[in-house]
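Worked Example 4.2. Read the sequence first, then its structure tokens.
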Amino acid sequence: MAEIVPFDPSRARMSGGGDGPEDPMLEQRVARLESDISEIKSLLKELSSDLKGQGGRLTKIEIDIAKVDGRLTGLDGRLSGLDARIAGLPSTWTMLGIVFTTWALGSGILIFAMNFLKR
């Protein structure tokens, strides 16, 4: 358990040895700290006003991003439509098959016509 010691007012008096609050260096240090604090306060005020200005810019950027997002969504829809149209086109092998079939039929008709006209 803690021991309670009575307060002795005679021990609380300062001796004036130069290391207490009467020390002139302490006043200089406190004055320096007060000037530093005032500079910090002015810088914080500037930063606060700058941050308030940035809030408006951030709102504008959010609006611009929403517009770009809408445009990208529309572009995505158009690209999916284009994808469907491209999927509907014939492949290279299909086109080659059609071309060769047309040539074969044309050659067959030509040969038939030449034989028919000879008679």
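Now turn to a second chain, presented in exactly the same format:
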Amino acid sequence: MKKFVIIFLLLIYPILLAHSQTTSYYLVMKELQVISATKEPVSYDSIPRFVKIITREEIDKWQAQNLFELLKHLPEFYVYRSQIFLKAIGAFGVKQSYFSEKVQVFIDGVPLTDPSNGSSFSTNQNISLNNVKRVEIVYGPMTSLYGVNSCLAVINLITYNAEDVKNLKVGTVVNTDFSNDSYFIKSFKKGKLSGIFSLNYREDRGPHEFYVDWTGRSSNLSAYFKHLTYYLRLKHDSGFYLNFYGVDRDNNFPLNIVGIIVNDKSYTRRKAFINRFGYKRDIGKLHFDVYTYFNWFYIKRGYNICLVDICSQFFLDSLYAVEERAIRNPGIGTFITYNTSFGKISGGTDLNVVQLYKTNLSANFIPSSLSFDISKIKVIPFQKLPSSDILMDRVSRTIISPYLQYQFIKKTYSFLLNFRLDKLNDVGNAKTASFSFRYKLSDIWTFKLNTGRAVRAPSFEEMYIKNNPILQGNRNLDFEKVDSFMPSVEYRGETLSGSLLIYLNRFKDMIYKQTLVAGTQQWKNYEHPVLVKGIIFSLRKRLSNFEIYGGFNKVFSITDIEDTIFLSYPDWKLNGGISYEEEKFSWDINFEGYSRIKKGNIKEVPGYGLVNFSFLLKPKSSLKLAFKVNNLLDKKVIYPFYKTLAPSNLEGMIGEGRNLWVGLEVSF
């Protein structure tokens, strides 16, 4: 991989130095109005927060079908998969759990978070980008504006509106593993009402590959994931609007939750209905937005925890359980902005109610009797268990959150102040604040500073799990706090741009799994601070129709923390590539490089590098033909495993080998 990096740098060095025709470099960026940094449009050049914009052109260049595929190209994010093939992300040196709860995702300002676990990615493992015209990523502590769990970054998907899609757009892609991704986008307008509807259907079919688990059992296996996502945006000229986002997804796992080959009875079914109905209006210097919502989340999962050959010794086919939960999430909120001669004052209040109103468990064993010695497990006929034996009681959480924002913008400098109070009936109160400052050193150089505190609220799963001798809940958990200090420098020329960001994140009361005795863990707040320090560097050079780009993330140090793989993160990650674009076609070849991973209670993961290639043909404005090869050199992709659960020989992750995608998009 080092040889590839050296060759890559040698190739781009003379191009960076070469004389090129002076062309405007991303003038669109300079004129762009960014929404996510302040909850209202602000010019990109004036924002004091560190913001990264991914345009539709870049999404098409990489042919990223969903958010996971996009974040792989950004060095500050680490996309990985668990042993049961669930995808997750880490950021800024922190791997997190598979819930990825420290990074929050929004669609047109509406959070996609499952309020029971604080995760946007458990709601939808395929956050489609087919209807997205740009992605706005705001870095740093954002709890003071967006609420709990917005700790490391906020990702806002800005979708097409009725003016962007004239009538109808349809597309499909399929790969050599028979995975496929299809979408449909339709705009409409009738009188004063306009809207757009999009639908995405995706199937991920892992190839039938030979697999050996950590116990030595082997099998040809394949995972299967199905995602149906639909999104409706309505807007009336009077100011009323409606956003409705729905998810229906199925996962079938060939492994159990600790990575052992079982049978095909393990599955998860999830549904989510997320909405916002509101009214916006401008009256002179006053702008206000009043909204309400009633979200609903549902999960049903079955899991077999018994190995077939061992169960048969006790005349069992399986130790099998089916869990069912439903959550309703009503709420109301306001956001008001007033322009004054001395700056802009904004603020609002959110009332968010989370009710776990349905929780059932059916099983052929008593969960509290679980043991590595199967003879001690209390086996019963498969039946619905009484409330005393289920894994989680019905619980409710109410969050009241007043917040205030002050922004002052001048041509050469600007700053933001944010304050917020989050009152949770079951955890307590959290006060957060942030300060962001921008100073224009020259026409092309800008200095920014972002600092403040963010908090993560413990989830229902971390607090209220019971009757589980393997992982116990903890009702006494406190907020996880993150104090951040992020200075940065940005350079924006006509054909060259770059940035350098230093991050120092200090975690206090970090929520992790503490091992009590062998085979038993409990969620705890870590008693010592955890400090993560690192640097992110990015560079882009435009040369006529070519663009050379690269990014690098280096984690300098992480404080040790016991019994966790949350910090099992690459010491460095490198991204880079070369792209070429003309009116009728474009191509891109890019590289992902990952250092080895040694930190945490894991088996050491070797470093690796991946090369990807994509080609886009546009014979006419209404037609696109796509071709993409992931992992062109068919390198092994390996993710962290607990030492006790890792196979003796770490093999490449199934489904991450070389694969080819071909696609078609037609606009009418």
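Notes for the reader: Confidence is low (pLDDT under 50) at residues 4-25. Helices lie at 2-17, 27-31, 56-62, 67-71, 143-146, 308-313, 460-464.
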